[in-house]
């Protein structure tokens, strides 16, 4: 990766993080999970996905499904960065005058499908990948799931079917930030070894650093990992990545910030002093 | 023509149609050879079945989806509601052995709340054909419709000839009569037809109404029945909650009219598992039982003062 490419990705990721922080003001949002997959989503749109504004109907375009729908601030912020819709709409977050709420809305340009109920989009993506297979298309289907989402049985049901149908056009990306809503995943229902589980289900596996663009570039360049097998990429990430007061915190699942806190956090993102979160965090679900 | 033959005909005419199943092949055994890659069996995985159907529909396909009615509408309920319902995708769900057709399988297989669940989903259409010919017409209709549909599979032979074409939301008036309006749907239509004959012999005129679709519902047929007969009776192999009796009451309330309504349905329990004829006998849904129950209900409302049956 050239320094210029890396610099461009970092600049986009910084803008996306700023937008996520701004979307956390007022009613708040699921900021920790949004920050963990921000680099990943930026990288996918910049370097992997064959999709851009206006090409949604192109026959060979790729699909990205966000199954862990609560981190949609990261996706909306990235879609804005690539021109899918106007940044001004992000200011309408949670307003009844617009339709940008805590989970993905298919009415927003760039959003392939709604989600929010965990464990659904692996199955939906299997259907899309099946149709591409039947139709002889070259499109690829990417699905981002949370690590906690792997608790859902429907993920594994879809995993069995994807392998049975030899869907090597399907790529599941696990945002491995090591937390589910309120707890560390390994303290509640341990998930490791994740590779061995998927391998036993007939998937090709790869683990990457979900915050290192060079590592992502090396990993995604290898797709499909194996002909005739679906791929799972486990991206090691940090919940709340980029803001010290949020990183790896079980109680920073959902955060509603004041304007002052958000300003301090944006300052921190730009290399300023560490911001502190004083306002009460809200735990949803 | 069989269900399978009609399905092949539909798939031959529309290249977007795919046939899916969760390894329930009883009604579609010959389709893999006929449809090739357009036949998709995901195995015993109803959630993935419905989720994948939504994905196929997103790509422009029209999936016709088969599974046992209980597991389709209940195991995969949230996938139907969330992936098919919210997106209003043209997924066609066909539930096998619904209602009394589950016979001796026991309560795990008794879909007697499927209609309440499916009709509660905004935009979902619900169809309960009376017999095989009507099911084939319904299948053709729903396959060409852009909305999601749920249909109770019912291949019983006809008790009478259908004269009116199948149209969603239009009930079929099978017999005319001014005493009782007998509203029913699905596999019990035959028993209701036979009960109607018995009641006529006893001097009770019955307007037998085959509802055909529960959503959309033929409100006009319900209101007209209420207006022109002494008593409206609903007969259904479904829990009393959420089925046709509930729908009739909702129609009455929405139109601010009073209806004398007698519901013959399953009370709040599952039915005794047995072979079909024995289930009808045991649960009071044989033609003889139905005639007796309807006559008794009518006697309470009969202004002529007659005591029947």
Low-confidence stretches of chain B: none
- Report the total helices of chain B: 12
Rg estimate of chain B, integer Å: 19 Å
Pairing-aware structural class of the strands and helices of chain A? alpha/beta
Strand order of the largest sheet of chain A: 1-2-3-5-4
- Assess the beta-strand content of chain A as a share of residues: 5-15%
Residue runs with pLDDT of under 50 for 5 or more positions of chain A = none
What's the N-to-C terminus distance of chain B?
A: 40 Å
Order of helices and strands of chain A: HHHEHHEHEHHEHEH
Briefly note the structural class of the backbone of chain B.
alpha/beta
- Largest beta sheet of chain B, briefly? 7 strands, mixed
What is the CATH class designation of chain A? Alpha Beta
State mean pLDDT of chain A (0 to 100 scale). Answer: 95
**Average of the residue pLDDT scores of chain B:** 96
The CATH class name of the largest domain in chain B reads: Alpha Beta
Q: Please tell me the total number of domains of chain A.
A: 1
Strand element count of chain A: 5
Helix fraction of chain B by DSSP (H/I, runs of at least 4): 25-40%
Which fold name fills CATH's third level, the topology of chain A? Rossmann fold
| Beta-strand content bin of chain B | 15-25%
CATH 2nd-level architecture of chain A = 3-Layer(aba) Sandwich
């Amino acid at each position: 990766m050239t320094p210029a490419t890396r610099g461009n990705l970092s600049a986009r990721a910084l803008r996306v993080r700023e937008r996520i922080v701004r979307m956390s003001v007022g009613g708040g949002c699921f900021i920790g999970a949004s920050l963990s997959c921000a680099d990943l989503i930026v990288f996918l749109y910049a370097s992997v996905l064959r999709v851009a504004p206006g090409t949604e109907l192109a026959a060979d375009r790729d699909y990205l499904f966000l199954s862990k729908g609560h981190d949609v601030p990261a996706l909306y912020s990235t879609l804005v960065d690539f021109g899918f819709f106007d940044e001004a709409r992000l200011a309408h977050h949670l307003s009844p005058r617009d339709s940008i709420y805590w989970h993905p809305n298919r009415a927003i340009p760039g959003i392939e499908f709604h989600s929010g109920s965990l464990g659904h989009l692996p199955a939906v993506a299997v259907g899309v990948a099946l149709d591409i297979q039947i139709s002889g298309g070259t499109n690829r289907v990417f699905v981002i799931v949370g690590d906690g989402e792997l608790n859902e049985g429907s993920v594994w049901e879809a995993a069995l079917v994807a392998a049975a149908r030899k869907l090597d056009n399907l790529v599941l990306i696990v945002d491995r930030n090591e937390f589910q809503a309120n707890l560390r995943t390994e303290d509640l229902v341990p998930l490791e070894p994740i590779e061995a589980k998927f391998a036993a289900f007939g998937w090709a596996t790869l683990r990457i650093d979900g915050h290192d663009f060079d590592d992502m570039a090396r990993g995604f360049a290898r797709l499909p990992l194996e002909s005739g097998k679906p791929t799972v990429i486990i991206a090691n990430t940090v919940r709340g990545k980029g803001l010290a007061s949020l990183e790896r915190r079980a109680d920073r699942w959902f955060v509603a910030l004041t304007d002052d806190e958000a300003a301090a956090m944006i300052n921190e993102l730009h290399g300023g002093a560490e911001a502190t979160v004083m306002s009460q965090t809200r735990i949803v679900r | 023509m069989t269900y399978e033959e009609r399905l092949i005909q539909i798939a031959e005419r529309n290249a977007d149609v795919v046939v899916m199943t969760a390894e329930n092949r009883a009604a579609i055994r010959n389709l893999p050879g006929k449809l090739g890659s357009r036949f998709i069996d995901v195995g015993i995985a109803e959630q993935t079945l419905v989720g994948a159907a939504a994905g196929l529909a997103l790509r422009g396909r029209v999936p016709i989806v088969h599974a046992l009615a209980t597991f389709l509408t209940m195991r995969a309920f949230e996938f139907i509601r969330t992936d098919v319902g919210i997106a209003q995708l043209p997924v066609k769900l066909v539930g096998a052995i619904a209602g009394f057709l589950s016979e001796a399988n026991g309560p795990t297989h008794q879909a007697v709340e499927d209609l309440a669940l499916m009709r509660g989903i905004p935009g979902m259409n619900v169809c309960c054909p009376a017999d095989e010919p009507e099911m084939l017409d319904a299948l053709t209709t729903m396959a060409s419709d852009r909305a999601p549909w749920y249909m109770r599979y019912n291949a019983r032979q006809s008790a009478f000839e259908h004269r009116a074409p199948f149209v969603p939301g239009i009930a079929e008036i099978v017999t005319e009569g001014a005493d009782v309006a007998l509203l029913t749907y699905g596999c019990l239509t035959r028993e209701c037809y036979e009960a109607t004959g018995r009641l006529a012999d006893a001097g009770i005129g019955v307007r037998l109404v085959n509802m055909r679709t529960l959503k959309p519902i033929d409100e006009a047929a319900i209101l007209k029945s209420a207006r022109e007969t002494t008593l409206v009776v609903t007969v259904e192999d479904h829990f009393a909650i959420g089925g046709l009796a509930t729908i009739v009451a909702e129609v009455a309330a929405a139109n601010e009219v009073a209806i004398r309504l007698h519901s013959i349905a399953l009370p709040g329990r599952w039915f005794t598992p047995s072979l079909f004829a024995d289930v009808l006998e045991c649960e009071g849904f044989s033609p003889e039982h139905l005639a007796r129950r309807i006559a008794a209900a009518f006697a309470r409302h009969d202004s002529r003062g007659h005591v029947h049956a």
